[in-house]
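Input record (Table S2, row 842):
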Amino acid sequence: MTLHLCSLLVFFMLQALQSSTINSINASSPLVQNQTLVSGNEIFELGFFTPDGSTKQYIGIWYKNMTPSRVVWVANRDKPLERTDQSASLIIGEDGNLKLLDGQRSTVWSTNVMVKSNYSAALLSDYGNFVLQDRNANIMWESFDEPTDTLLPNMKIGINMKTGKKLNLVSWKGKDDPSFGRFVLGVTSETPSQLFIWNGSSPHWRSGQWEKTKFVGIPAMDNTYYNLQQDNAQGTSYYSNNNHNNSIFGYTFISSEGSLEAVYWVNSWFTYYKAPAPDKPCEIYGICGSFGVCNTSSSPICRCLKGFKPRSEEEWKRGNWTRGCIRELELNCQKSTNKVASMTVEKVMFWKMELMKLPDSADLLITYDAEGCRSWCLENCSCLAYSYVNAIGCMAWSKDLLDTQQFSNGGEDLFIRLVDTSAGVDVDVVADTGSGVPLRTKLIISLSTIFGIILFGAGISVCGLSKWRGKLRKMTISRLFQSMAAAIRSKELPRETAWKEQMKEGDASKLVVYDFDSIRLATDNFDAKNKLGQGGFGPVYKGKLNNGKEIAAKRLSSNSGQGIAEFKNEILLISKLQHRNLVRLLGCCTEGEEKILVYEYLPNKSLDAFLFDSKEKAKLSWAVHFRIIEGVARGLLYLHRDSCLRVIHRDLKVSNILLDEKMNPKISDFGLARMFEGSQVLVNTHKVVGTLGYMSPEYAMGGTFSEKSDVYSFGVLLLEIISSKKNTCLDYPGQHLNLLAYAWHLWCEGRGLELMDAAIVDTFSTSEVMRCIQLGLLCTQDLATDRPNMSAVVLMLNGESDLSQPKKPAYTFQRLQAHEVQSQEGSIRSMNTITITTVEGR
Ligand SMILES: *[C@@H]1O[C@H](CO)[C@@H](O)[C@H](O)[C@H]1NC(C)=O
Ligand SMILES: *[C@@H]1O[C@H](CO)[C@@H](O)[C@H](O)[C@H]1NC(C)=O
Ligand SMILES: *[C@@H]1O[C@H](CO)[C@@H](O)[C@H](O)[C@H]1NC(C)=O
Ligand SMILES: *[C@@H]1O[C@H](CO)[C@@H](O)[C@H](O)[C@H]1NC(C)=O
Ligand SMILES: *[C@@H]1O[C@H](CO)[C@@H](O)[C@H](O)[C@H]1NC(C)=O
Ligand SMILES: *[C@@H]1O[C@H](CO)[C@@H](O)[C@H](O)[C@H]1NC(C)=O
Ligand SMILES: *[C@@H]1O[C@H](CO)[C@@H](O)[C@H](O)[C@H]1NC(C)=O
Ligand SMILES: *[C@@H]1O[C@H](CO)[C@@H](O)[C@H](O)[C@H]1NC(C)=O
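Output record (2-acetamido-2-deoxy-beta-D-glucopyranose complex):
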């Protein structure tokens, strides 16, 4: 997804200081104007608010402590109260319903449900759901059933065809007016569903078809938090952002200008996806008309599909594409009345377009595979195009092809039916990539990729592999096939199941395959007293083998989600990666469901046991602190650069740093590490794995990670080591929201040394400490491109290279901005508990 880092939200709220909070509205306790209702863990808050520039007031919900915050739900959006009305209240009426009363005690808004119980109370859940419930906590009404313009995590929008009930988002009319605007975000009932934004009744934006983890039209989206669930039997289709344990705070909303915006909290609010975006005209529905295709980076952005020409050359040249394109050559079968007869005469070809946002109005043909899909389309003259998408199946189009777009990456292949004018040439392989890569090169690349995957699955030495693949690229196609055949003959390609033997043979001296019983014996049948901790994928036990050797056995929980493939991945990786600052893998063990990794045992446990323990941390001198920082940096540099592969750790944190008897740090838990090729810079992942507080903004929000995500985690870790404080702990002097904000503040005021933990009393080099802090701030800059890479980090740590000035991070921005706004406004409108003020983005 496109990252719009640092773009600030338009709404801003300030709470009046005198407000008091309650946690339930019931018959004896209404909500009055200087009060707010808060959720159990104070995540959400509900109360009266007035948008800036408005003379009306409303009941709304917003995130409580994450400022600047935006109203995510409004009760009385089209029934406002006057701002001057000081005695409005939200009460439980005699009929058990929630009622909003104005100063004259007349009902302005009500939940209006049948309440059977003689008792009701309204609460705000930690998910932001405002619920009316009876004594037995049966829900009688909930705000999640009446969305306004915002989709919170765990809330859903969609459609139930049986009941006809739609849950849509409707935009505010304007920034200061929550009443119904003209833009609606909803889910279509077709299969597969799409998200649509409608402007009144005309389509304004379309997500493309849902393909299991993402929409065809949003290639960068690949995030397990999002889900579209379609149940054809029930006639339902719901889209949601699942986040059951509330580990991510955010929301998606439809703005009054008609854009869908997704926003997340990571130290500060980030808009990380916006569509249609002002700089992406191709995202406007059907901008190029029928049979036109849009490419953001070409000029003009619209062209006709292959085999089509503008309906009106003149209008097209003027940049008026609304009438679209028409066929240059009519399809014979369409002209003829006797369709079957003419079919045999006509030569039809399919023109392949890659990287496509597939057109709107697809028909899903569930019974066909890719080949069947093609021949079905070939045989049916009404079929204008087809596409076979693995996660969806066969789709065919019989209406005008509308709203297509060609991406620079992602998207799907679309095959367009054309009259074949070339005599006798098989045109089915012609690919319109627009990228100008010669076909042969492309073939080699894709072949070598497939080849590489086979090899890796088979467990060939991973280090040898990358060299081999480098060689592959230089071969011609025929030589490639020859060498493939030769490789198969010489058994260079072991079978999938052979990985275990491969390991035994290849690395017998280093990597051992243990049998399950010996591990069970060594750990006293995985006795709780031997448990060292809980790693990423399961518990870790201390064990003592028959020969007296101490080990740490990581028993992967079967529900860990780590399949045999990931398991092999980890074994292969770790056995190849050897460095003094990485934990050594001694061997592994599988039996049935059991998967166990056997590591060297490190007597001093993990760094967090020292750092965050008041007694233990006093034992560590600054010199030891610095050595640990240096060691981690070197270990990480090895992973990123010096090992034969480029490995990203992805879950670097204090508890993943183990210490040996000499307090040398060793990075552990490579289960999450993924390999990636030298040429690739970013990789999209299917799962966001990591620990909050250490995740870089781009990783936490979009799921994209790079080496620079590790650098971010390293920066957090560095500051934690210096301060002996957790980044996510909320208890910093001066009300700084986290360690990074606090460190930045001290650094700016030249008081960096105050960050250092008071327990470090021995001598230290001031310049060394200051350098570390500056480096920590450099590593945690918002933009990945601003962060140094690990080789630069190691040089800077040792003072062999100068440090640049870190950029101001976004997360301190909010507070500074609050003060600025306050002084600009002179006096905040304080008649109501909350004021919303518009703030310019920076
Ligand atoms: C009504 O709510 C208040 C707090 O808002 C609570 O103290 C009181 O116990 C509630 N009354 C009943 C009957 O639940
Ligand atoms: C505000 O709350 C206080 C108690 O916290 C109460 O005495 C006062 O009457 C309230 N003011 C209004 C306008 O409701
Ligand atoms: C409300 O209902 C409960 C249970 O049905 C009953 O015990 C209670 O007496 C009722 N209270 C009133 C005021 O009717
Ligand atoms: C929405 O539709 C109205 C009326 O058709 C039009 O004037 C307006 O420009 C449209 N807005 C956008 C953002 O396309
Ligand atoms: C939240 O839930 C997800 C999925 O259930 C899980 O993978 C993740 O570890 C949980 N996170 C926390 C902080 O509990
Ligand atoms: C889009 O247009 C640009 C500029 O003409 C071109 O370089 C690029 O290859 C095109 N992309 C596709 C996918 O056609
Ligand atoms: C574009 O073409 C359509 C159809 O001919 C016409 O109705 C419309 O006014 C044109 N728009 C502009 C901006 O010229
Ligand atoms: C051809 O396709 C059209 C549109 O999908 C469909 O209505 C029609 O039944 C198909 N005809 C045949 C013979 O399959």
